Amino acid sequence: MPDWTKAFILGVLLSVLGVALCFSPPGHQLEESFGLGLLFKIRGPRKPPEEVVVIGIDQASARALNLSEKPERWPRILHARLLRALSEVGAGVVAFDIIFEEPRDPAHDNALAEAMQMAGNVVLVEVLRKEKLPFDSTTSPSSGQIKIEKLIQPIDLFKEVSVGLAPFPIPKVPVRVSQYWAFKTGAGNLPSLPVVAFQVFARNAYEDFLDLMATGDALIAEGLPSDRERLLSAGNVHKTVRTIRDQFEANPALASTMRAELSISGAKHPPLLIPLIRMYEGRDSRYLNFYGPPGTIRTIRYHELVDVGNGAINRELLSELKGKALFIGLSEREMPIKTDGFYTVYSQPDGVDLNGVEIAATAFGNLLENKPVRTLSPFLLILVIAMSGVILAFICRMMSYTPAGLVSIVYCAIFIWVVGLGFAAEGWFFPLVTVVFFQGPLAFTTGVIWRYVDVNKERKAIRHAFNFYLPPSVVDQIASGKKAITADGRVRHGAFLCTDMQHYTTLSEKTDPEKLYRFMHGYFETLLAPVRLNGGLISDIVGDSMMAIWEDKTPGASSGRNACESALQIQRALVDFWAANPLNATFPTRIGIHCGPVHIGNVGAGDHYEYQATGDTVNTVSRIENLNKHLGTQILVSEEALEGAAGFLVRRMGSFILSGKSNPVPVYELITWQALADSSQQELCLLFDQALAVYHEQNWNESAERFDAILNRYPSDGPSMFYRDTCRHYAANPPERDWDGVMNVMKK
Fold first, then answer.
1. In the structure, what pLDDT confidence band is assigned to residue 604 with cuts at 50, 70 and 90?
2. Exposure of 595 by Cβ count < 10 A (0-12 exposed, 13-18 middle, 19+ buried)?
3. Which residue from 159, 173, 355, 587 has the fewest beta carbons nearer than 10 Å?
4. Which helix (H) or strand (E) holds 108?
5. Phi-psi bin for 105: left (phi > 0), alpha (psi -120 to 50), beta?
6. Where are the domains of the chain?
């Protein structure tokens, strides 16, 4: 399988696993808690809109105003004074993140109600409290609990004069707050505090908004307040907001139609019109695009505006709040005077969290800027994960380990950088955890493992192929890459077996090459099997000749015996081979065996090497094999090879100075296994040995007669013919006086 195909398969696997992780609840939670948090860290704090201001009730204000540390006990006349001042300066909207659920001092309550009515832009918070009611079934013995969400509203006096009511439930599960409810589906699609406050803040764009809604269908806007005065005077802005939201949900194309109409008209429109459309068409739950740590949104402490002693208002500071969206609530940056903190990505090491009022102001700022955290559509999300999976797969599959690791890190770094830019510019939330921390390591790990498996397969294939040519130890070195191929090796002692087919030249000349190839293939299969069976290594195959090696760690081991076993097994196997061969001919195979030291290793230079044995022993075994031609034998073995090789029937041939050699080599004919020798073979060996003894006594006539007698009983015995002819030659031409019985073979 090509590497690019494997890379594509890995890419598909990474894509499927990445998509599965990203769309699973654990994966989604990881992206939201870790991935989104990392994007905020990369981006850092950003400037919030100047139109949003928090007026914070905190411990410092409680001390400065000499009031209780519990905000609900503060005299409501303070809020009335502040609200009148804000109304006079022209605040855009005032949202109280304080629940006024119980009546207090009537005078103070009335004063605050009058201030709210005069302001005409106050939104009060409601509280959604979860309660568990016991449930008993009359039809079943089992009992349980019913969980309900109960809406706690301000007192009726305040409800009647505020322009709207809204809860602001913030989920604390998971632990880190990342989203807020724009519309609380579990509570009847209630709009939340930032949404209602934003509709009040954008009241000047309300009439244009209604006209756009009615562009396609006038019935859509039917039943809604016709202008901003009616919107606010009704005191039910939250109900109007919920009705508009219902229309957007019932008409999914409404938002697109309104934007298209704006684009076609080309007329100048209020700047808050587009954010209003986005607010109504968005999801029920939305991600918070935090501006920074606690206090990033401008926060004015309560006591900086109001003096409880003389009721004075800081007019200079107050003038800066004209047209602003003001959120009043608990905003503690020291030790909390009431638990209202939420753990977010910007929670501080000292335990200071963002308070609910700051989160509400953050949500409002996101609506105002039309810059929330934007999630990708399912299609784009799958596309990004799939593309990253394929890219990482090709990097990690097509490259070697180190480059793949480095390039993967670079790719992930670039991905983080690009995603960080997109998040900072437009709030795009890309699957950072899935791509960088899941697909990246998985691609590299899988690529490494897969490549290891492939390399291991390749090494096995190399071993399998090279085992036909080289010893296993050398093959292991080549496959592992531990050692370069050079002209080196080692000196070892061992047994060597050399074979040669008689009349091969004539055979090759008269036989078709294809037939000769098939014939030689079967021939060498017959020769090689016994060698491998007895632990031998094939050193060389040239033409019809074969050289096999049995390497000994120490001289005197069993290598000679193994070589002799192989020779006899080859001889026996060739009988069956010649009986079944397609050439209908028999060509005897001569075998020579010798033991001694040789150099085994790579021989060659430049770009060509061969693994073979070199040394005098190799030359000697070749000459011993060639001696078979002179003696008319099939298997000749040197005396060294027979050391420790008991159990064979051998016949002493004498000592010979072989062609190109200077020292005599004692040679024996290997006939058969001792256990399988018949009486005629044993008799032949005995008679030949007796005749050879007379020959060494230089009694030429008697020895010739003895060899003739052997030939009478064994007419085809080659050694007897050789020595009979030699005796007759010496009878006519006696050797030197110092003749020691050694025969000199001049020809190969």
1. low
2. buried
3. 173
4. helix 106-119
5. beta
6. 3-27+377-461, 53-127+144-205+282-369, 472-674, 678-748
